[in-house]
Design goal:
The complex is a heterodimer of chains A (about 300) and B (about 270). Chain A is about 80% helix and about 0% strand. Chain A contains 13 helices and no strands. Chain A is globular, with a radius of gyration of 24 Å. Chain B starts with a helix and ends with a helix. With about 270 residues, chain B is mostly helical. Chain B is elongated and about 75 Å long.
């Protein structure tokens, strides 16, 4: 396990370096002088020059790059132009809200998808299966920027069950979690169905039935557990959609997370904060995929030796 | 529902939307830019089946114009991404060595960014607008095709007919053009159908966030963004463009799924 862990961690280093390089390049893609763009056309030349110096844009590209990387290594992502607060502090303040929302979305997705996918697999070819598959395809096609407002319209405005926006009580969490979790539930239900069908074909399930286990117990005790690997893989890959979806969901529900911070910083042209948010989301994504890879080793010990 | 029915329903929805995009702006008598402030936020009626927006513009005619934006984005992004991704993936998979390493590292680096995040980042620094949306979605779009085709070519280059062609003196381009890329084409076509849905959602997401197509040009995402402020007093502003996006995306997903099922069935025969 130790060698597997070290090898997998080492493979992450070039990916993280690539992510950092792309994020560094972002500010240099701004058409014209980034300092002038950030301050606007009416800014005094002295202010523009001062900002250029503060951002280090007056130095050579190589020096800027090395300085950016050493800053990252120290956890220094620069300072927000609007609030003068360190970027890392701004992100850290918003972090609990984003994690809370992502976790709730994962719970919603898992609670809906695993039973739905398993029932569809066990009742393969029946009306239940076809209905579940159609529901999953519909879930994948529902964009969260439409699902969110529609849920608000029905459950907040119409039925007055949940608040329209904001964060505070568990009731605030319900609609954003469903909005973010629905597409994930759809993808997970499809992969759960496929995975359980594959496992149900295996000889060990037949052997379990031959030993007298009921169909339900054979599925729950044997097939479900072994179909977890592809499900966990997809869960890891889908974290990207969850993190991007969080940007839109947080904007719809005025949820004070990192995604909303990103959109706000884009509208204020606060590029250090934009860079920080992008970097944070990408690093989180890479880390989750690393964790998923490591989890394989726990779920299936054979994977460690491959 | 069988695979052929999924494919038929999907194709019908896509064809209907394509027809609306192609001839809608000429057939629908109302100008999508014409304002009638006295009737702003008016609900659906016989004269205006989907109602009027916050500036008193007809939502149905704006949706017909918005369908054009969706198709332009989808077709442009998918055709460029599929061409570039297929060529790079095939070259990397066949040539191996340094070229494959370079392409694979570029794929790894871009795959490290979740979904639309890189597109949001690029449009944030380049500025909003249709061209930058196309650029951003294409830059993230080619990666999926390249990874897919590389995988197929890696397997296909060991096939006997490819080896035989090489033994007869066929060059790299001939092998790629006649044997390897055609082997990957069915998978690319499925990916392209699903990619159309992805590109349409991508454009609508960016426009919804205010980073995509800019007003007054009608786009379904921009219309949804405009409707947010009137969610409580005029929900039809959000409802109809949203339904249009769901229908078209579902249509392309149906086509992609139906094609995949059909190809799977053919390959098992």
């Amino acid at each position: 396990m130790g060698r597997f862990l070290v090898r997998r961690l080492l493979l992450t280093v070039p990916v993280l370096l690539g992510v950092a390089t792309l994020v560094f390049a972002l500010i240099h893609l701004v058409p014209g002088d980034p300092a002038q763009v950030m301050l606007g056309d009416a800014a005094a030349p002295a202010d523009v020059a001062d900002l250029r110096r503060r951002l280090g844009l007056d130095r050579t590209l190589a020096v800027q790059y090395v300085s950016f990387l050493t800053g990252l290594a120290r956890g220094d992502l620069g300072v927000s132009l609007r609030t003068n607060q360190p970027v890392l502090t701004s992100i850290a303040e918003r972090l609990p809200a984003t994690f809370e929302l992502a976790l709730a979305a994962l719970v919603v997705a898992t609670v809906v998808a695993l039973p739905l996918g398993t029932v569809a697999a066990v009742r393969r070819g029946t009306a239940i299966d076809r209905g579940a598959s159609l529901l999953a395809l519909l879930g994948i096609s529902l964009p969260n920027f439409w699902l969110g407002p529609t849920l608000v319209l029905v459950f907040s405005v119409g039925l007055a069950w949940f608040p329209v926006s904001g964060r505070g009580t568990w009731a605030h969490l319900v609609l954003p979690a469903i909005t973010l979790g629905a597409p994930l539930a759809a993808v997970l239900a499809r992969i759960t169905r496929t995975s359980v069908i594959e496992e149900l074909r295996e000889v060990y399930v037949l052997a379990a039935r031959a030993r007298g286990l009921s169909a339900g117990r054979a599925v729950i005790r044997h097939a479900c557990r072994n179909s977890l690997i592809p499900i966990v893989t997809v869960l890891g890959l889908q974290m990207g959609s969850v993190l991007t979806g969080a940007v839109i969901t947080e904007t719809i529900f005025a949820w004070p997370g990192v995604g909303r911070l990103l959109i706000q910083s884009i509208s204020f042209r606060d590029y250090p904060l934009v860079q920080g948010c992008i970097l944070f989301i990408a690093v989180t994504y890479v880390s989750v995929n690393l964790a998923v890879d490591l989890l394989y080793g726990v779920l299936d010990p054979r994977i460690r030796y491959e | 529902m069988t695979a052929s029915w999924v494919l038929r329903i999907g194709s019908a929805v896509v064809a209907g939307a394509a027809l609306l995009a192609a001839v809608g702006p000429w057939v629908i008598p109302l100008d999508p830019a014409a304002q009638n402030l006295a009737l702003r936020l008016a609900p659906p009626s016989w004269a205006h089946p989907f109602g009027l927006d916050e500036l008193g513009r007809d939502i149905f005619s704006r949706m017909a114009s918005g369908a054009r934006v969706s198709f332009v984005v989808g077709l442009t992004v998918v055709s460029i991404s599929a061409t570039v991704g297929t060529l790079l993936g095939a070259l990397g998979g066949y040539a191996g060595g340094l070229l494959d390493d370079a392409i694979s590292r570029a794929i790894d680096m871009l795959m490290a960014f979740p979904g639309l995040l890189l597109a949001i980042a690029l449009v944030a620094v380049l500025g909003p607008g249709l061209f930058n949306v196309l650029l951003a979605l294409t830059l993230i779009g080619w990666v999926g095709y390249a990874r897919l085709v590389r995988g197929v070519v890696l397997r296909a280059r060991a096939f006997e007919y490819v080896q035989a062609s090489r033994a007869l003196g066929a060059g790299t381009w001939h092998l790629l053009r006649r044997h390897l890329i055609p082997t990957a084409m069915p998978a690319v076509v499925v990916q392209a159908a699903l990619g159309m849905a992805g590109a349409i959602i991508g454009e609508a997401s960016l426009s919804f966030l205010g980073l995509g197509v800019q007003p007054p040009t009608p786009s379904w995402g921009t219309m949804l963004n405009g409707g947010r402020a009137h969610l409580l007093d005029a929900p039809h502003l959000t409802l109809f463009p949203g339904l249009a996006i769901v229908a078209l995306v579902l249509g392309f997903n149906f086509v992609g799924d139906g094609l995949r099922d059909r190809l799977d069935r053919d390959s098992r025969r």
